[in-house]
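This part of the workshop introduces the protein records we will be handling. An example says more than a description, so a record of this kind follows.
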Amino acid sequence: MYTRRNQRHLTSAQRERFVQAVLQLKRQGRYDKYVSLHSRYFTADGQSGLRVAHMAPTFFPWHRKFLLVFERDLRLIDPTVTIPYWDWTADRAESSALWDDDFMGGNGRSSDGQVMTGPFAYRNGDWPINYSVTEEKYLTRGIGRPDRPIELPTTAELEGALSMPVYDTAPWNSAPATKGFRNRIEGWTASENLGGYLHNRVHQWVGGHMTGASSPNDPVFWLHHAFIDLIWVRWQRRHPSSAYLPAKPLGGGDAQHGRVISAGEPMPPFGVKPSAVFDHRAYYTYEEN
């Protein structure tokens, strides 16, 4: 078992080791498989077929396994590395050390969104965008969404979600009718002014490549989703008697039959059941501060 830490408390050496492991994975040609995999399993409500990564109850367990597989690859390069988390309720500004030149790099330039600073800037030659839903070969960001400015979620908004005792409800998608913790955190249709829209608002706030299905092109994706994973841990602690739902496969007469995975059904492409990753302590712990 190993420990994931808040990015704001990493030493300079720890930041460097994480960055270098990510860059090495990219040079080896193994990073982009995570970009394509996330895109492949990004199925929306309006599309046919199974929903697994998003807009479904498996949002949390699927991404937990996704991060675990990525983290395993990083640790094969450097066994000291773990995925740090970005608590966006605390580090809320572009001036945060998260965006320093030695870590994630800064915002994209106003003309085309191209990130010009930091280790993932295209001009350094180490971070070409090879798989994306757009044509840019360089990493893009638009921090704060300048055309329609937004703020990162607040502590109060997160607390409102954590207080919800039910994990998920029918119709198990992103519609407002789907009440529960999972849909509130994931945040597709809830108004950004009414306490919802949390996970997705962070993607929109970073902007650029973080706004689409190929969002792992921006390495800050992993820090964001490590915090999303920690949020699930906190919810589980607070509601120990509240289980993942649906607990059993949906019946053939259910409109979501064949589209939603229950606790005991395997999640593609991993072949792992959600129930197998309910307890993160089998793999790692969090240093919370």
